[in-house]
User: Which sequence fits this backbone?
C-alpha cells in the first residue's frame, strides 16, 4: 500500500505543475485546456511506460489527477489489445474508465437537475 | 452559357488584382510600412502594459495548489487503502475512490462551495478528477434554464467532451501502435 | 468637404446642444453596496429581480430604468420618439426585449461597454439634426448574463486573474430633449476601432486603454482644448490596470494635467473583490446616470467628458487567436 504522504507529495506536485503553467501563461489557458493537457500527457506518458512508475510511487497521488485518467484509458487499451487484438484498441480504454466517465456524467446531470447556480458576492 | 463558366476567370483575375492592391503575395499578407509602424507601436504599448499589469501571486498560488491538490489525492489514497485492507482489488478500489471523489465534487459544486475553493486553489482543484467533475456540473448547471435536453444535456459535455475526445484518441492510437508492433 | 458641424478629424459640435432633462439608474446589490450606492435610483435586492432567468432580469432592469427616467418628466413610454439602447448579450436581446415592451421606435446599438456614449453621441446628432425632440439613450449589463456568455459557468472553480474585471449589474437611461436648462451635450468624438494587439480575455483594461487615450487625444486636438479643460474626464471601464496605462499614455501623448478618473475604478470599494474594477455597459451608464449627472446638477462639476470604452471581444474569434480590438467614444457634457 502506498503511504498517504507519498500520495500527498506526488498529487500536490502534479497540481503545482498545473499552477505554474496557468500563472506563466495568459488567462486564455482555461481549466478546459488544463484538463485536456493533463489527460493527453498522462495517456502519452502511460503509452511510453513512464506513468506506471509514478503510480507505483504515488498511488492515488498519480491516479486521482486527470493524467491518471489518461493512464487508465491507455492501460485498459493495452490490456485489451493483448486479449482481443485490434478490437481491443477500440474497446479497452472506455471499458477501463467506464466507471469514472459514467459517474461524472450521471452525477453531473443529477446535481444540475437538483441545484441552481448560486449568486456570488 | 452558365454564369459559373463565365464568371470564374473574371473572379480569379479580380482576386489577383485585389491581392496586388493589398500586398497579398502567394495568398499571404505582406506587411506594408504602415503595418510595421503599428507593430512597433504595439510592442511599445505591450512593454508599458506589462510593467503596470499586476504579477500573479506566485508563492501563494503555488502553495495553495500544492496543498489542496495534495489533500484531494490523499483523501483518494486513504479511501483506496481502506478498501484494499477490506479485501477489494487495487483496480476496483482505485475506480471506486474516483467515483466517490467525483460524487463529492459534484455535490460541492451544486452547493456552491467548489467554486470558492477554486478561487484560491487554482490548479489544485482543477487537475484532480474532482476538477473534471466540477467542470461538468458547472456547465450543466449554468444552462439548466435552457432546458434539460439542449441545456443541461448538451452543455454537460462542453468541458468533458474535449477532455474525453483527447483521452480516447491517444488511447486508441497507443493501442493501434501496440497492435502494429505485436503483429 | 467636411460637414458644417464637424471639427477636426473625428469630432462634431452641436449647434443647438441637446439637454439631458432626466436620467435614471438601477443597479444590483453589489453596486449598491459600493461607495456610490445612495446615488442610484434603485438598488435591486438580488440579481434575479423576481424573474425566471438572468436574461429576463436584465431586460426588466433596463426597461424599468427607461420608464423611471421618463417618469421623472411625467412622460409615458409613448411620449418618447426614439430609443437608442444596447447591451452585451448576443443579438442585444436585453435592449430588443425592453424596446418590445416599451413600444418606443428603436435603434439597437452595439458598442460593447462603450454603448452609453455611443447612444448619447447618436442621440445628440439626431436631435441637433432636427429629426427628433425626445430621445432616450440607455445601456445595461448584468454580471451573470455576461459571465456565462463571455467567460465561465458560475460554479466552475476558476481563479480570477488580477487583471480581470467584474461586469457590473447596472443600467442607466438618459432622456434628451431639444429644450431645457442643462446639462447640455456640447460635442462628441466618434472613436476609431483601435487594436493594441492584446489577446488576454481576462485583461480588458490593457486592450481598451489605447482606444480611450486615442479618442481623448483626438477630442482635445480637434477642439483645440488644453488637457485640464474638463473638470473630469472619465473613462468607462478601464479598471485599475487600464487606467494606470492610460495615465502613462497621457504623458506620452502630451495631455497635460487631465482631471482623470475611471468609472470601473469608482464603482466599487477596494474591499469588494472585483479584481481590476468594474466593467460592462452598465458601469459607465450607471455612474453617469447616478453620481456624475447629480454632481453636475448641484454644481460640483461643470464640464464632464464621458469616454465609455468598449472591448469588442468575442469568445469565438478570440479562440481563433485574434487580438481584442477596442473602441471609445467621447461625449462632452457641460452645464452651461
Assistant:
Amino acid at each position: 500500500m502506498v503511504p498517504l504522504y507519498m500520495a500527498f507529495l506526488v498529487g500536490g506536485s502534479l497540481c503545482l505543475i498545473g499552477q505554474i503553467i496557468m500563472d506563466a501563461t495568459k488567462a486564455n489557458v482555461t481549466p478546459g485546456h488544463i484538463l485536456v493537457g493533463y489527460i493527453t500527457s498522462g495517456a502519452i506518458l502511460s503509452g511510453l511506460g513512464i506513468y506506471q512508475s509514478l503510480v507505483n510511487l504515488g498511488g492515488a497521488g498519480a491516479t486521482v489527477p486527470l493524467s491518471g485518467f489518461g493512464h487508465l484509458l491507455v492501460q485498459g487499451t493495452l490490456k485489451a489489445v493483448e486479449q482481443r487484438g485490434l478490437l481491443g484498441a477500440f474497446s479497452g480504454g472506455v471499458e477501463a474508465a467506464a466507471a469514472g466517465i459514467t459517474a461524472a456524467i450521471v452525477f453531473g446531470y443529477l446535481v444540475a437537475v437538483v441545484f441552481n447556480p448560486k449568486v456570488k458576492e | 452559357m452558365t454564369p459559373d463558366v463565365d464568371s470564374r476567370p473574371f473572379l480569379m483575375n479580380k482576386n489577383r488584382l485585389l491581392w496586388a492592391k493589398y500586398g497579398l503575395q502567394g495568398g499571404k499578407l505582406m506587411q506594408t510600412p504602415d503595418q510595421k509602424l503599428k507593430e512597433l507601436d504595439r510592442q511599445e504599448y505591450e512593454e508599458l502594459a506589462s510593467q503596470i499589469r499586476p504579477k500573479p501571486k506566485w508563492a501563494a498560488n503555488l502553495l495553495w495548489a500544492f496543498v489542496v491538490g495534495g489533500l484531494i489525492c490523499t483523501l483518494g489514497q486513504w479511501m483506496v487503502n481502506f478498501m484494499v485492507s477490506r479485501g477489494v482489488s487495487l483496480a476496483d478500489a482505485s475506480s471506486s475512490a474516483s467515483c466517490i471523489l467525483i460524487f463529492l465534487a459534484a455535490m460541492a459544486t451544486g452547493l456552491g462551495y467548489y467554486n470558492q475553493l477554486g478561487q484560491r486553489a487554482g490548479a489544485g482543484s482543477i487537475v484532480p478528477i474532482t476538477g473534471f467533475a466540477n467542470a461538468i456540473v458547472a456547465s450543466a448547471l449554468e444552462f439548466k434554464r435552457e432546458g434539460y435536453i439542449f441545456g443541461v444535456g448538451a452543455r454537460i459535455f462542453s468541458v468533458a467532451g474535449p477532455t474525453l475526445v483527447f483521452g480516447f484518441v491517444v488511447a486508441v492510437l497507443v493501442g493501434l501502435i501496440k497492435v502494429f508492433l505485436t503483429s | 468637404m467636411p460637414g458644417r458641424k464637424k471639427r477636426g478629424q473625428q469630432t462634431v459640435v452641436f449647434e443647438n446642444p441637446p439637454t439631458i432633462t432626466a436620467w435614471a439608474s438601477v443597479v444590483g446589490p453589489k453596486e449598491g453596496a459600493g461607495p456610490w450606492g445612495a446615488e442610484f435610483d434603485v438598488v435591486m435586492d438580488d440579481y434575479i429581480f423576481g424573474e425566471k432567468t438572468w436574461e429576463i432580469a436584465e431586460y426588466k432592469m433596463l426597461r424599468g430604468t427607461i420608464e423611471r427616467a421618463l417618469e421623472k418628466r411625467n412622460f409615458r413610454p409613448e411620449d418618447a420618439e426614439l430609443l437608442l439602447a444596447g447591451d452585451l448579450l448576443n443579438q442585444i436581446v436585453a435592449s430588443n426585449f425592453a424596446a418590445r415592451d416599451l413600444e418606443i421606435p428603436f435603434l439597437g446599438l452595439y458598442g460593447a461597454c462603450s454603448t452609453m456614449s455611443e447612444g448619447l453621441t447618436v442621440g445628440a446628432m439626431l436631435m441637433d439634426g432636427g429629426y427628433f425632440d425626445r430621445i432616450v439613450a440607455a445601456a445595461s449589463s448584468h454580471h451573470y448574463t455576461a459571465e456565462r456568455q463571455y467567460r465561465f459557468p458560475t460554479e466552475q472553480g476558476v481563479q480570477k486573474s488580477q487583471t480581470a474585471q467584474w461586469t457590473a449589474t447596472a443600467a442607466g437611461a438618459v432622456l434628451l430633449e431639444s429644450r431645457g436648462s442643462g446639462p447640455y451635450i456640447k460635442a462628441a468624438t466618434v472613436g476609431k476601432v483601435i487594436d493594441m494587439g492584446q489577446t488576454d480575455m481576462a485583461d480588458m483594461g490593457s486592450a481598451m486603454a489605447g482606444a480611450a487615450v486615442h479618442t481623448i487625444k483626438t477630442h482635445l486636438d480637434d477642439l483645440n482644448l488644453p488637457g485640464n479643460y474638463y473638470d473630469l474626464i472619465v473613462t468607462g471601464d478601464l479598471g485599475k490596470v487600464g487606467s494606470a496605462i492610460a495615465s502613462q499614455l497621457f504623458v506620452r501623448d502630451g495631455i497635460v494635467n487631465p482631471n482623470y478618473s475611471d468609472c470601473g475604478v469608482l464603482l466599487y470599494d477596494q474591499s469588494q473583490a472585483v479584481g481590476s474594477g468594474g466593467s460592462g455597459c452598465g458601469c459607465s451608464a450607471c455612474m453617469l446616470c447616478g453620481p456624475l449627472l447629480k454632481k453636475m446638477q448641484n454644481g460640483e462639476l461643470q464640464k464632464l467628458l464621458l469616454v465609455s470604452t468598449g472591448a469588442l471581444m468575442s469568445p469565438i474569434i478570440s479562440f481563433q487567436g485574434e487580438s481584442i480590438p477596442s473602441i471609445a467614444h467621447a461625449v462632452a457634457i457641460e452645464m452651461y
